[in-house]
Design goal:
770 residues; 6-stranded antiparallel sheet; 12 helices; globular
Length: 770
Amino acid sequence: MAMAVHAQQGRSLTAKDYEHAESMLNYNTEPLIDHGSVHPNWLPGDRFWYRTLTPKGSEFILVDPAKKSRSAAFDQQRLASALSAAAGKKYEATMLPFQYFSFTADGKAIIFKANENQWRCDLGNYRVVPDTSKEGIAAMAAPVGRRQLRGTRGNSILSPDGKKAAFIKDYNLWVRDIKTNKQTQLTTDGIKDYGYATDNAGWKSSDNAILLWSPDSKKIATFRQDQREVSDMYLVTTNVGKPILKTWKYPFAGDKVIPMIERVIINVDEPKVIKLQIPPDPHRATLSDDISSSGTFDDVNWSEDGSKLVFVSTSRDHKQEKVRMADAATGEVREIFEETVPTQFESGWGGINWRYLDKTNEILWFSERDNWGHLYLYDASTGKLKNQVSKGEWAVTEVIKVDEKSRQVYFMADGLEAENPYFSQLCKVGLDGKHFAVLTPEAGTHQVTLSPSKEYFVDSYSKPEVPPVTVFRNIDGKLIANLEKTDISRLIAAGWKPVTSIKVKAHDDKTDIYGLMFTPTNLDPNKKYPIIDYIYPGPQGGGVGSWAFAASRNDNQALAELGFIVVVIEGTSNPHRSKSYHDMNYGNLAENTLPDQMTGIKQLAEKYPYIDITRVGIWGHSGGGFATAAAMFHFPDFFKVGISESGNHENRNYEDDWGERYNGLVSNSDYEAQANENYAKNLKGKLMLAHGLMDNNVPPENTLLVVEALEKANKDYDLVVFPNSQHGYGGYSLYMMRRRWDYFVKNLAGAEPPKEFELKTKLDPRNERE
């Protein structure tokens, strides 16, 4: 019997091998894609322009829904000629020196920056002249298509009427008059660690004010955050001279004291603080590990006249949600209804899915009470359920529009396509639960961008292996214009090949789980290839991320080119499917979907004989780093090589909200039994650990606890540290990538990597600036 040939084993890889692998990274594949992403820059009347990349450069396109037209935004050849003459420098029509422009108010000219100057081009005669007008400066400073979410300007939050900006100063809330620049202090008793609207979740923080203006711009809903007794976190810089100590409030799971928010409403014109008449709430929200993940103050809805504030209070363990209504004048709070779940509640995944419907005094609520994420309609006066709005064995992921006049709700949903339960579609249904319709029926996953009026949307649909088609529709799904069909012919000509979608059974041998497989472009089915499992276990989201087309996903294909099979298996206990699916390992985060990963790899090896099941590697970052070390310690005979980056190995040493949400309170869950350092003695294979020593998300002692345990157990290991890097390594990311390649090549493939190969990112020439 002939022995199987092991790919790469025993040979030395060269710089050319690494260069070939590097050709599969994003900065090398994206320049070979034409007519790809459409990023609309909105104009009045829901018109918009966008820039599309072509083999020769780029084109600027203007779309008008009233005319149902797609046309050139301007004559690029005439503009290039005029700009060349005005600037004294030659420009080509397809390679104009700007990526963004702004129309003047009358639409008869455009303003752009080039050659270190600002220019104005008259679209009637194409005369280009330097522009110093106030209109031009303002347009380029805050262009419509680039405005930040929800009226933010720096650290200030603009009022709906655009006349005021709220900001934090010395732990108190202030407003600034935009026209006169006059500043008015709204609160006076804020102090350090007990200030107003402060943004700190421990694992993330900023100087932004967390608040929500009332629609009439007369009131602000916010809170005073009490962190005075919350434990401190410390990080120390590495530098010549004395190090700098970084200190901030960072609660751990199990801490006796966590940040609490005292809800307030503030009258702006005549400053007055109205405290809501309820006890302080835990720093918690229905969506994620923060109270501002929606871009503003989470779980707060104003009535149109600003007289009422509807909000949701979340318990520390995320098991109880209280829906409440406050009188904005008195602070009196009325309980409307509450929902309690045995594991953890969440209000959606793409965004917070509950809404207060002011005109009818109703609440559109999201719940997984029937095992699927769906919408329910409540009477806000009585707190009684009126009816279920959506229903079926699929999940509402994000509500994007509620039309109170027509009484219809528009939302993204997963699970309606048999091919893949993670494919998303835009749907609508009446608030009475009738007339459900899918508005984006094409196969694949749909990514939708609403127009400012929410009467139209840009729809891009694709699959992991099928490039996108982008169209423009009205809100009821009717096609207005075809925009772009992505062309990957140059990418294919360069030797690229698409990823393979996979489906296997989970560890229960019943549940279908999905993923992606990357194989070498020169795959020889008669050889044996080691397999690398890229893992992110969630449970707030898995390793695949978006299921839309991408030419490069991390460095998965690049690793494959070095002689590996690479898989990403979306394990159980992740969202976008049923509630029971998401809760499969609730209370045991250390399971990390590893039983799913192992059984999935075994099934793939049976289907694809070129997979060498005796050489399995694994790597991941953050939660994936936690999972990787757990794999090496709990299943040392299966996983032979692991690279654990920035792992939260000990969840009693990580931010309070993540563990207490998905694992339960420390008093109710065995965190000790899940800590990686307690199993380091089981290591048999090769393990590399990596961490940034200024990681303010996952503190570096998480990895150092594992290091100490390995040393106590007399185990060999490898360690990479980034002295001044945070969670993602920043400018050292490519260095870490190269070290990752070297480690797998040497220890899993049994080959010798080239010495200190340098990965060098580069810009798409079509996007280069002067």
